[in-house]
UniProtKB/TrEMBL annotation:
<dbReference type="InterPro" id="IPR050834">
    <property type="entry name" value="Glycosyltransf_2"/>
</dbReference>
<feature type="domain" description="Glycosyltransferase 2-like">
    <location>
        <begin position="8"/>
        <end position="133"/>
    </location>
</feature>
<keyword id="KW-0808">Transferase</keyword>
<dbReference type="Pfam" id="PF00535">
    <property type="entry name" value="Glycos_transf_2"/>
</dbReference>
<protein>
    <submittedName>
        <fullName>Glycosyltransferase family 2 protein</fullName>
    </submittedName>
</protein>
<dbReference type="InterPro" id="IPR029044">
    <property type="entry name" value="Nucleotide-diphossugar_trans"/>
</dbReference>
<dbReference type="GO" id="GO:0016740">
    <property type="term" value="F:transferase activity"/>
</dbReference>
<dbReference type="InterPro" id="IPR001173">
    <property type="entry name" value="Glyco_trans_2-like"/>
</dbReference>
Length: 339
């Protein structure tokens, strides 16, 4: 089993002064944490100062700053490059770890990536003390490229739950031996793209349903501000993965499904951008010039108009309704229910 203090926690942060202290403190509280590297990605607020105030004096915190914003992928690559721990964990600046997370992950065997469940919690529920999260049955399993990508294709009328949101612990040796880093031109789906390439290269990706990561849902979160251009770059990233001649037929088929899924989102967003910026005629001209995009545009508009009639209730652990302001990415079985 890996020795204590073997993990580098990477936090890319931009204008996160209100939340970065909580994130840093949760990372330093884990005894397996050897390094916490914060990259202040061109913030215009006091992000670096707020991160420094969470330092516990152990010498494990390091804060670097980009003068200009370069995006989360570039920030994470910089943190990985300046760290040396054998394992790497990603923590978003809005989010935090629950106590004991790394111990549970490191207890698993035979993996290059290992991830746990995520609790999505409304910011209004955070009143100081960490939320009470049930102890879930780990139910460890390996996921392959096909199941990973299928889990990242969202569907209308189904609550969003793409497993690309997961924040796995990564083995540095696997990243190094396969020359894997984040694509710095991506500002949407950079995690998904890295994990997909790793799985295509044979990574063992283990998943447990125990919950150790809290993602805070905020109305002003930067992660929700994506441009139409970001969608284009993401489907082009899928096409770049498809250029790998070693992929099996099943791998090619599922990546193409994801590429079409993202491209449909792009076509709809581009249509709406044109309608808002240049008027309905310009949007219609764009759609008619791209017959292949017409079903995605028409279907997307219809779905948006009828979404309020189709919205399902949230389903949480063990199939029960989530509590107000709290839901889980993966369905799970509380250990107490088995006793």
């Amino acid at each position: 089993m890996p020795q204590i203090q073997a993990i580098c926690v990477v936090i890319a942060a931009r204008n996160a002064s209100a939340t970065i202290g909580r994130a840093v403190a949760s990372a330093l509280a884990e005894p397996e944490t050897a390094e916490v590297v914060v990259i202040d990605d061109g913030s215009t607020d006091a992000t670096s100062t707020a991160a420094q105030t969470a330092d516990d004096g152990s010498g494990r915190l390091r804060i670097l700053r980009f003068e200009k914003n370069r995006g989360p992928a570039a920030a994470r690559n910089a943190a990985i490059a300046c760290s040396s721990s054998p394992f790497i964990a990603i923590l978003d600046a809005d989010d935090f770890f629950l106590p004991g997370r790394f111990g549970r992950l490191l207890a698993e065997d035979e993996w290059d990536f290992v991830a746990d469940n995520i609790a999505f919690i409304e910011e209004s529920r955070l009143t100081g003390a960490p939320p009470t999260i049930p102890e879930f049955d780990p139910q460890p399993r390996l996921i392959d490229l096909e199941s990973f990508i299928e889990g990242n294709i969202s569907r209308r009328g189904v609550r969003r739950g793409e497993i690309g949101f997961l924040k796995p612990l990564m083995r540095r040796a696997f990243l190094e031996s396969n020359d894997l880093r984040y694509r710095e031109d991506l500002r949407l789906g950079e995690d998904y793209e890295l994990y997909a390439r790793a799985l295509a290269k044979g990574a063992r990706y283990r998943l447990i349903h125990a919950c150790g990561y809290c993602a805070v849902v905020r109305s002003d979160s930067l992660s929700g501000r994506h441009r139409t251009e970001d969608l284009r770059r993401l489907y082009e990233a899928d096409r770049a993965i498809l250029a790998d001649s070693s992929l099996s037929g099943e791998m090619v088929a599922v990546i193409r499904r994801h590429e079409r899924h993202v491209r449909a989102k792009h076509d709809l967003r581009r249509f709406l951008d044109l309608k808002n910026d240049e008027g309905a005629f310009a949007a219609l001209r764009y759609a008619l010039a791209r017959p292949a995009a017409l079903p995605a545009i028409a279907g997307g508009i219809l779905a948006d108009k009828t979404e309020r009639f189709r919205r399902p209730p949230g389903i949480g652990a063990a199939g029960h309704l989530d509590s107000p302001g709290l839901r889980y990415l993966l369905s799970a079985i509380p250990v107490s229910a088995q006793r």
